[in-house]
Amino acid sequence: MGSRHRVGRLSGLRLGRLPGHRLGRCFGWLWAAYGTSALGTWLAFGAFPLIALQVLHAGPAEVAALSSAGSAVGAVAAVPLGPWVEFRRKRPVLIGMDLLRCAALLTVPAAFALGVLTFVQLLLVCVVVAAADITFRAASGAYLKTLLPAEDLLVANARFESTAWTTTIVGPPLGGMAIGLLGPVATVVADAVSYLLSALGIRAAGGHEPKPEGRAGRRMRAGDLLDGWRFILADTTLRPLFFNTALFNGLVMAAQPLLAVLMLGRLGFTPWQYGLAFAAPAIGGLLGSRLARPLVTRFGGHRVLVVSGSVRALWPVGLAFLGPGTGGLLLVVGVEFGLILCCGVFNPVSSTCRLERTAADRVTRTLSAWAVTTKASTALLTAVWGVLGGLLGPRTAIGLAGVLLLATPLLLPRRAGALPSEATPEPAPGGG
Question: Which domain CATH number covers 274?
Answer without folding.
Answer: 1.20.1250.20
